Each structure stands twice: as C-alpha cells, then as structure tokens.
Amino acid sequence: MKQLARLGLGLLLSTGLATAHAEEVKIGMITTLSGGGSHLGVDVRDAFLLAIEQSGRDDIEVLVKDDARKPDLARNLANEFMQRDEVDLMTGIIWSNLAMAVVPSVVRQGTFYLSPNAGPSALAGRMCHENYFNVAYQNDNLHGAMGAWMKEQGYERPLIMAPNYPAGTDALAGFKHLYEGEVADELYTQMGQTDYAAEIAQIRASDADSLFFFLPGGMGISFMKQWQNAGVDLPVFGAAFSFDETLIKAVGEAAIGARNTSLWAYDLDNDTSRAFVESFQQAYDRMPTLYAAQGFDTANLILSALEQAHPDDQDAFREALREADFDSVRGEFRFGPNQHPIQDIYVREVVAGEDGEPTNRLLGIAVEDIQDIYHVDCKM
Amino acid sequence: MSATLFLEQLINGLQLGTMLFLMASGLTLVFGVMGLINLAHGSFYMVGAYLTAAVTAASGSFMLGLGAGLLGAAAAGALVELIVIRRLYHRSHLDQVLATFALILIFSEGTRWLFGASPLWLSTPEWLSGYVTLPGDARYPLYRLVIIGVGITVAVGLYLLISRTRLGMRVRAGESDREMIGALGIDISRLYTAVFALGAGLAGLAGAMVGALQSVQVGMGEPVLILAFVVIVIGGIGSIKGALLGALLVGVVDTLGRVFLPLFFRGFLPPSEATDVGAALASMLIYILMAVILAFKPKGLFTVND
Amino acid sequence: MLALLLVLPVAADLLGHPYYVSLASRLTLIAMAAVGLNLALGYGGMISFGHAAYFGLGGYIAGIGAYHAFDATAFMGLLPGSDNLLVLWPLAMLACGLLALLIGAVSLRTSGVYFIMITLAFAQMVYYFANSWPTYGGQDGLPIYLRNQLPGLDTQDPLTFFLICFTGLVLAMALTSRLMGSRFGAALTMARLNETRLATAGISPYPIRLLAFVVSAVITGLAGALYADLNGFVSPSMLSWHMSGELMVIVILGGVGRLYGPLAGAVLFISMETLLGGVTEYWQLFLGLVLLGVVLFARHGVMGWLAGRESPGREPHE
C-alpha cells in the first residue's frame, strides 16, 4: 500500500498537475533506479520527494529518469531535460563517472546542478563551476577522515585496498593524505570483482595491524562475507559506502565490528535528523541510508533557495544556494569557496541491533570541518 | 613469497575453477547435445542464488535453501526450455544469441521486480563457517573447501551419468549424431528438456553455493557467464572433460595472475605503475590465454566431434 | 525511410525542438555502427560478438585527440592532440582497421561458435584494458568538453552535427551497396553460402572475409568516433559486451543482410528505449519480451517482415 502511495506521489509529481503556474519550478532528476547499486538512487529519490512533499509546495515539478548507471544514457537524459523539458535545475546522479559525463556540459549551458552524491575531484578543483553545487561530499572526505581517525587511534601499519579505477585510486590517495604515515601495503582489485580469496591471503601474509578498504556496493558485500570465514583477526575500517544500512543487512553478521566514516548517522543527535528518520520510516517503511539523508538535504537546500529567488534570476538564486540557509540533517552545513561542503565527518561502528540484524551506531566525530584539498585549484 | 601463500593461492584457483566447472558443464552439455548457444545460462545461476537466499531466510535452513536453489533453477530451466528454447534448436546461432540475450533482460528485470533492487542476504551456515588449518599454518575457509568437494562430486557424478546410464548413452548418441538419435525412437524432446534442466540446475547450484560468499544481486550471473564461455571454448565446446580442464586452467591462471603479476612488475617499476600495469594485464590474462589457445587449436583443447 | 529520417530532424529543428535533433543523431550513429556490423554479420556470415571494440576504439580516438588538444599535451609524449575532425576521422578509421586486421587474422581461423566467442574475448581484452588504464579516465571515461571541429562548419549546432552524421550513414550504406554489387561482394556471398564452390573458382575465402571484416570495423569505428562527439563523452561502456550485444540485436531486429535492416533495427530499438523508458522502470523486461517475440515469430527482422519474403542474403540454417 505504501508502495502504491509512493508510486502515486511520484506520478503526481512527475506529471506535475500540468497547471501552468507562472512561477513553477521544474527539477530534473537523473538517478540510478535499475541494475547494480540502484538502492542508492532509490533512496536519494525517495528522500528528495519526501522533502518536497513536506514543504507543501505544489508549484514544484520533479521529473525523475533512470540512467541505469550508463554514462551515455545519463548524458542523453540530461539533453532531454535541458532541451525538451527546459528544467530549471538538475540533480540526482549517484556515480562519479556519470557525473563527469553529465555535469560539465549541463552547468556550462547555464543550468544549475546540485549533486546529492558523488563528488569527483575534478569538479571540486580544476573544473569547478559557479552553477555546480555539491551537497553531499567531495569523494575524499570520508576516506581522509578515516585516515586521520585511524592515525589518532594509534594504528601504525594499515593495509589499504580499493578497486583499480579513478574513484578507487582517489580514495586511497585521500586516505594517505590525512593518515600521513607509511601503510603496510596497497592492494588494487578489479572493478566488479566478486572473489577476494587471493587478496585475503595476501592480507594475511602481510604484517598489517589493520585493514582499510573502499569497495562500494556489491563488491563490499562479497568481500566482507569472505573475510568473515578467513580467520584473519585484523580490525576493519572503511567508508560508509560499504556499510550503509541496506548493504550491512546483506552482509549480515560478518559486518559487525567494522568501523566506518559517514557524513550522517541516523542516530545523530539533532531534531532535523530525528524528524527526518521518523518521517522517512513512516513513508517508506525502512531505515534511511546516508544517501537518503543527502537527497533530503539537497531538496531542502533547493527549497530554502527558492524562498529567496526563482532560478530564472540566476545570480540571486545562486547567492541563495551559497548561503545554505536550511536545517541540515547533518547539523551544521556550509559551503566552501568551491561550493563543496565543509562538514564534520562521523565514525560509526556496525553492531547487532535490537532485532539481531546489524546496524550502525554512532561513535563520535572523526574530523571536524573537513574540507577537500582540491578547492585551491578552483578558479571561479 | 612463501610456499604457504603460493599453496593457498593455488587452492583459491582450484576453488574458482570448480565453481566455473559447475557453470561450464551445463553450458557445454547444452551446446554439445542440442547445438544451442545459451547466453541466459548466467540467469539460472542468479535464480539459484536468489531462491537459496529467499528459502534460507524463510526456513532458517541453508540446506533447504540449497535444495530449493538447485531444484528451482532446474525447474526454471525446464520451463524456459519448454516455452522458448525448444523453438531455437533449428535456428541459426544468431537467432539463439538474440533470443537468449532477450531472456537475460527478462530474467534480470523480472528478478528485480520480484525481489527489489537491494542485494539479498545469504550467509554460510554455522556448521560450514570457520577455517581449516593447512600445512605451513595457513588458515583456509572450510566453506571454500566444501565448494571444491561439491565440484569434484559433480564432476564424478557427471562422468558416471554420461558413461554408465541410459540417459548418458543418449546424450553421447546425441552429441555424435543428432539425426541418429531421433531415428532410434528415443523421445528426443524429453531428453532435451532433461539435459537443459540438468545444466540449469548445476548453474543454480553454483549460484547458490557462491551466493553465500558474494552478494546476491541482479546481474551477478553475467561476469561468471563470460568466464564460463571462455572455459568451454578453451576446453572444446561439448566436451565435459574439456570443461573440467578449461575451468581449472582458467581458475588457476586468473587467480595466480591477479596475485603475482603486480608483484612481478614491482621488480622493475614504481609500485603504483606496477599495480596499474599488473592489474591491467591480469584482467586480460585469461582472454589472452584463450586467444593463444584458439590461434593454435581453433576448436579448443578437446574436440568432441567435427 | 532515409528521406523521412532527414526531414523529421530538420522539421524538429525549425520547430525549436533541438532534443529530437540529437535523438535523431544518436539513432543515425547507432544505425551506422550497425551498418558496419551488418557487413560482417549479415553479408559475410561472420557473427562478430565484439564489434563494441571498434565502436569504442573510434570513440576513444576522438576523445583522446580532444583531451590532448584541450590540455595542449601529447599522446604518449609524441603525437600532439587535435580537435580537427579531418585528422581524427581518418585516424579512428585507421586504428580500427588495424585492430580488426589483427583480431580478424586470428579469429577467422576459427568458425561457428568459436568465432563468436573469440571475437567476444578480444573485445573483452580491449574493454579491460581501457578500464584499467588510468590516463584516459579508466572506468570513469573521458569527457569531450567541446565538440571536435570541422573547418567551415559549426559542429556545436545540433542540426549541423546531425547532417554530418546523416552523411556518414548514407555513405556507409552506399559503400555497402556498392561493395555487395561488385565482384568482391559476390565472392563474399559465395564464401558464406558455399565455400567449396568459391575454392573451385580459385579464390581463397580467407582474404575476402578478412577484408570485409576490416571494412566493417572501419565503418563501426567511424560511427563510434562520431558517437563520442555527439555525447561529448567516451567510456568503457562503449566497449562492453552489452554494446556488442545491442548492435547485434539491432542488426537482427532490422533484418540480417539487408541494406536497410540496420536502420530499421535502430529506429525500432531507440524508439522502444525512449518510449518504454518513459513509462516504466522495468522497461528492459518489455524490451526482452519484444525481442523474444521478434526472434520467435518475425524470423527475418522488420525488413524481412515488411518485404514478406526470405532475405536474399540470409544463410540457410546450418
């Protein structure tokens, strides 16, 4: 029934009640709703629509399209939104490679883009743009924060591991940048790899005192399950991308004990967050992930800016976005000069919840006011 | 590089190999007997994993789930054979590729519709968890040894089935002369359904076993499918013996390549470049192996019939 | 059909719907890539499951040229970048031709299923190579920020770019038609239908097939180069086996070994993707059902069904 209600809401919003409101705002959302990793896109979409619904505004039309995680399809959808539907702003992309395919051309053609996930380094630095806002994180934020925190906790020889692709190498570079010490070893896996027996044997054979890995989505699930039975007693660390509420349910008990950094936790102690968790659970009958939180914040940032100006008045609207005058579920939220967040990053631990299923518990703040290192390259 | 680590990686290679054999044996049988090229074989792997995860979650018993995965995939195979596949035996390879490509889309999206986009939870049962201590004090997961055991059992079982039973006799007859077997008055369509269901069931078994190690998600069958194709092409399409040898070869070469190539390049390149070059080469290694083998033996290592 | 494809985008542009112009460009290029594949697959009977390799390589040539032109750096430290399409196109065609010569020379030693699989394996090699080579973006792909230039024309203009693509498609189809009408075409058809008879005529089928395979790859590669410019983006997904599969699907949908088959297939495929994708999240399920229906019940593709007779170029099943 809830599914039906949500579908109804989605349809209603996407058909937009077709009343030609003078000040109507059109938002185009391109996100991943099918194929591998689609739970990220579904969470972003659901939370975004929830925030719009809660605002009670009926002059906002949200068009949602599925990119199936294909860069060329995403690029076509972007053209469709800009040229046919003439949307005022766009959002929704989950993956860095899709963002790199879509965002530069969108912002150059004078449409606003707000990222609810994915913050590739190029868009934070060399290729930053006044119409591009990242409401989630720069990709390195969570990895760097974990590096800093592990250093502080006294780990001396972490072995670090990531898939061999740009976001993977960036993740390890980000980790090392704030860890500022020697690592035991660096392992690169293949994209989409499903069997990690070879890597686990290498980890065991190394003299590492801890393991940090970045294996988003299904890769993380496979790795953790295989790690559990391998009989290696190293503490495990990662970023929330491998430990969101949906994924750890799929990993099961193997995830318990792992610590991970996140920009938001559902047990965060602030009113906005509590209200968000409650309303999200009520609407969709599941625990929101950090992606949902990011989608929710993105919508609320847009709503706060719309109070000030319509996107047609580009300068005023941009100024209103920069102020970031909204209640974030993360507590404090502000933008740096490159329009990427300066924010606290938290550490969480995966524990057995009341129902026995694994869930994240907040441990504390890993790093306060973290800012990406690429902002110095941004000439805006 | 210690001898222990090498031994461990070798076992890892064998484990990957036996899992590939479960996939490849069905694929090669279906091709050998019916002349059908089946891209949708990976879908049965996925069906097996999903059913196992669902039934295990509902009943709490992994064995029950495993049975459901195996039988469910076989049933799905039989159903697909009856509805679609049997219309394809007399078609060109091209039509078979297109139709089974369509089946992949249907299975993947249908599964997502039924089970949702999130990966399912499936884990090794208590009594198969933990590790075994190998010589040289290496610890090796018990479950992976069990997979190797199951793979060997299936290989022996298939050998006996094909060499000792009536069904096997018909299969062999079908492989060597498809016209003949019809002339012998054997109900060929039932034989075909049985062989297809057997192949699907084995793929389902592989998916179910591996599902406990990996994430159970839509599209999980596709990477394995491509590897299984490499295996049967190397081994010689239609040959069970070739599938076994090819699977072990691919499993070992892939695993060892992934571990040792980056290490090898570290001997004379800076670490990050060595990793890049090593990983790039490692991911291409089995395809290079396949190209080299086919360049010298265009019909694979074991040719069944010409 | 070609005339309609030409008229509709021009009309859309006049009416101020640039989106439909780029959609038409996309359709045109996919059709052109399929025309290339059709030469190998349809006319030559070489079932290549690896044409994404050429499509993607062509795209990467355009992307890498633009990348170095944008950064004012040089490829491998030797060749300077270029954003001139008159340089990039021949380069893309040359590269694809050489790759196809290499792949074809090995693959054509095999036949049947082995040929399908070995072409797939080679394409996978290229795919993994592009995936794990970080200089040009690896898995993230390579954006082309400004469309590559053609002297005297504004390639940024959707209609102009469409007309370039359209010319490419027409040329590719004309080339196919000319080739198949020539002695070479007759030999290729004979190599497919009856190898022994060709041999008795004193012609070896191997070089004929290899040449057809190379020409086929060159056409697909040029389409790939244009496609990268259209999207402003090239990534390994252009090289993936799904791409090879889709190209095959388009050729088969339209009708194997028919001049207009690839175009009809592309029209059908793109409209299904666009229309169904707008209706349901699970559109691929319905795409699958339609495809299955076409194979089982419309055996000779759309063009065959329209023509209502056996394709002249179709192989009798084995």
UniProtKB/TrEMBL annotation, chain A:
Give yes or no: UniProt keyword Electron transport: no
Leucine-binding protein domain: residues covered: 24-353
Signal peptide positions are 1-22
Keywords in UniProt for this one? Answer: Signal
Q: Gene3D superfamilies, alphabetically? A: 3.40.50.2300
Any one Pfam family here would be Peripla_BP_6
InterPro entries referenced in this protein's UniProt entry, alphabetically: BCAA_transport (IPR051010), Leu-bd (IPR028081), Peripla_BP_I (IPR028082)
Q: Which family does it belong to?
A: Belongs to the leucine-binding protein family.
Q: What is this protein called?
A: ABC transporter substrate-binding protein
Q: Which organism is it from?
A: Halomonas icarae
Ranked from the top, the taxonomy reads: Bacteria, Pseudomonadati, Pseudomonadota, Gammaproteobacteria, Oceanospirillales
UniProtKB/TrEMBL annotation, chain B:
Biological process annotations from GO: amino acid transport
Q: Which InterPro entries match?
A: ABC_transp_permease, BCAA_transport_permease
Transmembrane portions of the chain: 20-41, 61-85, 97-122, 142-162, 191-212, 218-237, 244-265, 277-296
Q: Identify the main location.
A: membrane
Alphabetically sorted, this entry's keywords are: Amino-acid transport, Cell membrane, Membrane, Transmembrane, Transmembrane helix, Transport
Q: Which CDD domains does the UniProt entry name for this protein?
A: TM_PBP1_LivH_like (cd06582)
Q: How does it sit in the membrane?
A: Multi-pass membrane protein
Example GO molecular function term?
Answer: transmembrane transporter activity
One Gene Ontology cellular component annotation held by this UniProt entry: plasma membrane
Q: Give the UniProt subcellular location, in the record's own words.
A: Cell inner membrane
Spell out the family assignment given in the record's similarity comment: Belongs to the binding-protein-dependent transport system permease family. LivHM subfamily.
User: Under what name is this protein listed?
Assistant: Branched-chain amino acid ABC transporter permease
